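User: We ran a pulldown and think these components assemble together. Before we commit to crystallization trials, I'd like a predicted model of the whole complex to look at. Sequences follow.
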Amino acid sequence: MTLTAEPDARSSAAPPKRPPQPLRHRLAERGVDWTLLLILPAVLIIGALFVYPFLYGLSISFQPLRGNDPLSNYTDFFGDPYLRDSIWKTLRLAVPVAFLSVAAAAPLAFRMRRDFPGRQFVTLVVLLPLTFGSVLIAQGMAQVFSTTGWINLLLTSVGIPEQQFIYNYTGTFIAALLVSIPFAFVMLMGFFGGIDRSIEDAAATLGAGRAARFWRIIMPLATPGLVTAFTLCLVEAFAIFPSAILVGQPDNATHVLTLPIYQAASQRSDYPAAAAIAMVMTVLELLILGVLMLLRNRLYRGPSSGGKG
Amino acid sequence: MTTTETLLERGAPAPARPPARTRRERPTLTSVITWVAAGCFVLVVLAVLSSVLVQSFATTWRGGWWPDGFTATWYGRAWTATGMSRALANTFQAGIAVVVICLLAGVPAGYLLARRNFPGRSVVMLLMLLPIILPPMTYAVQLAALMYRVGLGGTMTAVVLVNLVPTLPLVVLIMVPFVEQISPSVENAARVFGADNLRLFTRVLIPLLLPGMLAAGILVLVRTLGAFELTFFVSSAQSQTLVVALFGAISDPGGVPISLTAAMAVTYMLVAVLGLAISLRYVTPSQAIRQRHR
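Assistant: Here's a predicted model for the assembly, 603 residues in total across the polymer chains.
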């Protein structure tokens, strides 16, 4: 790895001592010269470890372990209703999770623009699930949400009958939400931070009431951020993996798209089949990204900060 | 900043409805809903995390508010029986290697993207954005297949390489605004005084970029620590990190005692909290994510 990092250090240390040539000058005018080599290590690493594996995965997905039909990995996936349904099961989980996380995170993130007591504490607690990841969340949920866990004890003490929270759809749903809400929150905090509060104050000065300020000023400015947050939460929830196994019902209700990938790769060592399903997942994700980003670009894109001069 | 804004508010001409003055004191329905929801979320998160902590000290806990008794022996057993010391060492090794490589390759790239316009710049930008936007599960398996193909499968090298994919673009994108805020005239002055490229970097740019590099490095460390999917598919028992070992113990059909996995989980939490606490001192999270998803 140090090998890739070295060439740029050398090139910046000893610039070539050749006499200037017209071609070099012409290139330099367009921004091409030797300092451009500085970007090479990063581009090489991403090219070799991100772009190439994609192409490699695409090519092995057409070379199934059994049989000669190059498309058999794909026909196997779409031909088997159990595997095919995993797309639908993923969507049924990811769309509500993304929607609910943005809906829950937006009001709180919006309030974070103003200072209040305990702001640091709220930020820290909200960030904890993001740092720990879903494996740890699942471990904790197995106790708290179990039939004799704290949540059910609390519910029965106020007269609500015991609920089965984990090892079903709800379990994975809660686990996804616990990671997705902080994700949306952190993103939205960034977006809302860019909306100048003086715009709102100016509207208030000009006589806009609370509702008018919200619908006419805040919403148009915030919607692009909300759509972006929703999109990225959706894509992230689309690839939910550990919690579908640990607190879900992996063979039925939470048999999401990542599970056939995991079973093919880790249990059967059938990488071509796993790569084929991963390709299906990638295409679906890119589709979601493309459609929603197109939608976002049709929204208001003007400045969100007031001039101060 | 705050004083000018409150002044602005006080100085504003009286609105049509005078009660609007006291709007911050009067709780509205939406604010009540927001705070109750936020409170519930905070409570659930704290409950989930503290239950792991309680579990790790419990002799037995078959449900109910509190375990039957307390003991600290699980930590000792986790340390010896589950190969946790190995996983812990692997985690730190991988984390440090990833941070070093990311900074070496990412800082120059970030510098160039911030300062220069060149043909193909938008392609490079897209190349840096995609690994961050796409969840790791979309490329984890292909990457693992490739690693096994070239004979690196299951080694520490593979773990380090695989973790570079989401973290290197993170460093690049975090560095761009940090470079942008350094005035180019500082660089020009250094050149006038005879600094060559190497000196410019080591004597002028690196010291000015140090806060950003520190922030980026710690974020990378935290992300590598928690990166489950990527490490899971390429690592073996010899090269797994803490999260992967934890997942293995939880999902083990043979039934590892839950208190034992809890002890592993608490160790993992301690390591992660340490990283988070340090990173919060140097970087505001919203700033980092905003750069990620711009």
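Chain B touches chain A through 108 residues (CB under 8 Å). That may be worth checking against your pulldown data before setting up trials.

User: Thanks, that helps.
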